[in-house]
Amino acid sequence: MKIRFFSVQCSVFLIGLSLCSFTSVYANNADGFLDELDLVVEQGQVDKFEELIHFESLVDDVLLRMKSIPYSTRKALGKGFLSNTKNAAKTLLDSFAGGDVKRLRLQTSGNISKALYRIGFGDQGYSYIEWIIKPNHNSRHLQIVDYYSYTLGKSWSDMIREFFAFSQVGSSNFEELFLVFSGQRNTINEMTKKMTDYLRTKNPEPFLTAYENASEEVRSNDFMVDFYFRVASEVADENQYRRALEVVAKYKSDDPKYAFILMDHYFYLEQFDKAIQALDSFEATLGIEDSAIALLKGNTQSVAGSYEAALSSYSKAKSIEPTLEDIYWGEVNIYVVKEDYKSLVALFAHMESAFGYLFSREDFLSEPYYEGFVQSPEFAAWL
């Protein structure tokens, strides 16, 4: 059975794909600010993106909460940690490249707005992030001050703090971490070196090997589980990805914040009921009904052979977002398997009208998957 199933391998924005702050001409207008942000991301305007970034002020905001650390050390650490703003900006923008970015929700309370986004990556699935926006204290402009990754159930500032905390293992004081990021010292511990080497070279193998051979204390660390999953997800190796899923399941199976990641794990194990439960749990955490979640439910139910349930999920997905084409290809698979060629022809006709497809006999004659369809009277009457 040919199923266009969409994995939930997610592009997770951790250290090196850091949060950025955008100023906007739309002072105190979150909707207009986001319109501008959408345009910059959609058009891949690297120079514009770079101009709008203020990493240092954001890192300062995080470090200022660490009151036990001398201010001068915090200040220097922030600058050292984010010394290459241009490359960081380009990396973040590149992470959206080719993705289908859709704003799902904008909530405003007082002077703080929260904007929920879904980024679709085709066969690689979806990522959900929420930008936290408020006015800059020193100007009338808006800026993003934090973001929340629904994939990992953490904010950017939480990730930064976890990284700092982990990197202090085996060190005498926080200033040693500053020496690493300012280039005055190579490393604090071996795993910190492997992480920073990966962020610099983008070669995942040394870090992945080091993690898989690390102590249980290191492997079970919250930050390390997240970072390992992120790196493994970026490797074009399904076996590596499945090993990463097993790690998340081992240490995070009882944490509902990881439900979206674990959905893939259960799917690979053919535990389809658990996969659906994970999606239900994630949707409850998200706090909004989204067509992509309904689509993933439908794909899972279709693979499980629960075709009527799958059609119901696809119908729900279309009611939320009728322009999401992948929903219709899910229905195509079901009608082919059920040999419901009357419904299949009607669906293809709708797809031609709605999405501009122009199907021909050759499209189907060359595909063994459609052999039964091309031999049907419905096909003969249609093309």
What does this structure look like?
This protein is of the alpha+beta class and 383 residues long. It has helices spanning 30-42, 46-51, 55-64, 71-81, 85-95, 156-167, 175-181, 190-201, 205-212, 216-219, 222-233, 238-252, 259-268, 272-286, 291-303, 307-320, 325-338, 341-355, 361-365, 371-374, 377-382; strands spanning 100-109, 112-120, 126-135, 142-149, 154-155. Helix 4 (71-81) packs parallel to helix 7 (175-181) and helix 15 (291-303) runs parallel beside helix 17 (325-338).
Summed up:
It contains 21 helices and 5 strands.
Overall mean pLDDT stands at 76
Q: What is the helical fraction, as a range of percent?
A: 55-70%
Question: What best-fitting shape do the alpha-carbon axes yield?
Answer: globular
What is the gyration radius calculated from CA atoms? 23 Å
Number of strands: 5
End-to-end C-alpha gap: 24 Å
- Class of secondary structure makeup: alpha+beta
> What is the chain-wise order of helices and strands?
HHHHHEEEEEHHHHHHHHHHHHHHHH
Uncertain residue segments: 1-28, 169-174
The fraction of residues in strands falls at 5-15%
Which oligomeric form is depicted? single chain
Number of helical segments with 4 or more residues:
21
Largest beta sheet, briefly? 5 strands, antiparallel
Give the strand order of the largest sheet, numbering strands 1, 2, ... along the chain: 1-2-3-4-5
